[in-house]
Amino acid sequence: MRTGLASPWALAVLPDGSLLLTQRGGTLLRLSADGKSLLATLSGLPAVDAAGQGGLLDVALDPDFASSPWVYLSYSEPGSGAEAGRSGTAVARARLMGNALQDWSVIFRQRPKVSGSGHYGARLAFAADKSLFITLGERQQGSPAQDLAQTLGKVVRIQRDGSLPSDNPVWSAGALPGIWSRGHRNPQGAAIHPQTGELWLSEHGPQGGDEMNIARAGGNYGWPLRSYGCNYGDPVGEACRIGGGVHAPSYAEPQTFWVPTSIAPSGLLFYTGSMFPEWQGQLFSGALAGQALWRLSLSGNTVLAREAMFASLGERFRDVRQAPDGALLLLTDSGKLLRLAR
Questions:
Q1: Of the candidates 103, 119, 152, 195, which lies 20 to 30 Å from 74 by C-alpha distance?
Q2: Model pTM?
Q3: What are the pLDDT digits (tens) for 282-298?
């Protein structure tokens, strides 16, 4: 469909069918609906720290975009002053006016900024009530995922202007505002279940132990105290599972997990289209190290079966989105935008 993209990370489909596409280096492209034509490189983008896994990351449209054209972007924000040389996940919004982003404002900053260039998380998902979920990696720090005085390794829920919903979980004294759930490692996929309205996450494990979770209010998902994966360098197998592997009863069990090695799950999508009626209600996940598009068949919240699709292509699938006609749009780390249709 299209090649030559520079480290593409995420897609959003505009009401007219054209596409917004982020590139980690800090550019936001507008492409034609078929992906073949570059319509514009948008102006008004923030400075990003594009080292390692960082850069310009997810993009999402306001639920009321047709009447209020806000675009939301997550990115690795470089620190300044006392935080120079550090970075953290930030989320900002701006109005899409022609080919420019205007009225830019930062609505969330991960705390604290830290050194290193990995595990930003950074997926965005709007709930049915139009609040915004933000997935936040633990920046390869481990234990802060359990620390409520930091937003590393958390899911945060905010309103579209950055204010806080009144029905967020109530934590102990000292917890930072906005935290929805904790104990996450590096959640790089997020999607709202079309029937239940719950937030599903795909998370990178260490050596194995990638998880699919339902992020519920007040939930603790165990990292770094429990994982079905092992520490890097351990012999591949079950004996080295972190904390014994089993999460319950202290922590939430994943809906499914990948062992003994990691697939590195990425963008996540519940399929609701008509082009592939046999896939309605199924869950699709990109995979980076696993180099496949995974299709998960569900019964309620139970994962019945998993299939690795297109593994023969040898592509790292970064994001998956649904086109208005029900086709699947796939982004790869090699710079391709692919369209799966019949």
A1: 195
A2: 0.97
A3: 999 999 999 999 999 99
